[in-house]
Amino acid sequence: MPLEQMMTLKALRVRSGLTQEQVANMLNLSRSTIMRWEKDANDMPIKYMSQFAKIYNYSLDSIFFGDSIALNDKLKKGDA
Predict the structure, then answer these.
(1) Cα–Cα distance between 78 and 58 in angstroms, integer?
(2) Mean pLDDT in each 10-residue stretch from start to end of the chain (80 residues)?
(3) What are the CA-CA distances from residue 41 to residues 21, 44, 76, 77, 78 (Å)?
(4) 48 CB contacts (<8 Å, ≥6 apart)?
(5) What DSSP character marks residue 43?
């Protein structure tokens, strides 16, 4: 996975105003798992991909298979 896409989860979390701990609690995971997936989502089980899309209100394709999302991009509501 290209570096730009690996940063997508962090960018969406930051722009959603959530901490890694909050996301971890929503998914019943450890904070270290969220931290690891924000760096490299290659080992993420598929079942969590759709959950991230719901939490961040962003389409699954855009998060995991689309263009990169920079930290300073604005969330586009309705793209989910």
Answers:
(1) 8
(2) 56 92 97 93 89 89 67 50
(3) 17, 5, 22, 24, 24
(4) 27, 29, 37
(5) G
